């Protein structure tokens, strides 16, 4: 019997690999001789780098880069342990590692000033190492600069009408007049960039980056209006001045407003492609190949609810399993409202691991043992069907 274990992390308690190990430990108590294949998973958000590095036996690269406030921060990215289908090395970068909201104390959050420069430094380091395939995960950003800081770190000159370089931050985009790509990192033209993006917000307007995501980054009502105008001006200048074919409606493209407008920046200036995060991950870790001839797939995440079907890891795993007609069981820390919708999508069963009402701290600290016990009980139920034959 071949069992594929492909879970996401359980946030604040276990990494995806630790979840997979705990499930394997539980199943081995009942099926010690089964063949187990562990594929740590993610959906493009927090934990994606670690999951993909673990799944491919890759490595973590640690760097000191420019943080959202312009001060040095410790950041990281991953290099996958297997080549892509074109024979290239792949770097997986979480924008939040260098430009995340968690790097800015709550009293200092101001998206007029915060920058994505550090994310560009991570990309540049990967390019300098000869990597030509980059997966960039958006989300959790402290910035509202449409990726301008990232481009400045890659050598792009953004300047005002006097040809003075723009300062860092979202507010400065309102004075952009010239764009000079001549000193942009030369390897960018050779690089394939995929962007994990799971929101559909446009760049500007009532559903845009500033209006929807700005307040959580510290923007007041007045700041939101200022930032929205700045992003609109930024898009206008790019469409006029960038020397490559640009869709003038890119700012309306679903996902353009992701991560403070970073979606727009990477589409226009890096020619990147925006895709659902879980689709990128399942392809990159070659989940479909791992599932060949499997008898069962086990997946899960910290909380499964009605939102799970909208691009979360368990749904991505389920879609792969459906193509090969393999049954899937889901295990989660807890089940939220409307969790049963994933059953309607074809998952065979879902199980929470919490055995009793407990304080959150205890729930998190006991996640591994509760997960192993739940997996063992699921395996025991399965063994009954074998015993009756």
Top keywords for this entry?
389 residues; alpha/beta; Rossmann fold; Glycerate kinase, domain 2; 5-stranded parallel sheet; 14 helices; glycerate kinase activity; EC 2.7.1.31; Glycerate_kinase_sf
Plain-language structure description:
With 389 residues, the chain is α/β, with parallel strands linked by helices. It has two domains: 2-41 and 286-387, Glycerate kinase, domain 1 (Rossmann fold, 3-Layer(aba) Sandwich), CATH 3.40.50.10350; 48-277, Glycerate kinase, domain 2. Helices cover 35% and strands 18% of the residues. The protein has 14 helices and 13 strands. It has helices spanning 16-28, 48-56, 95-99, 117-128, 148-153, 209-213, 221-241, 258-269, 277-284, 287-290, 313-324, 341-344, 360-365, 367-387; strands at residues 2-5, 35-38, 59-66, 72-79, 90-94, 133-137, 157-159, 178-180, 192-196, 273-275, 296-304, 328-335, 349-352. Strand 11, helix 11 (313-324) and strand 12 form a beta-alpha-beta unit. The model has no long low-confidence stretch (mean pLDDT 92). Belongs to the glycerate kinase type-1 family. It is an enzyme of class 2 (transferase).
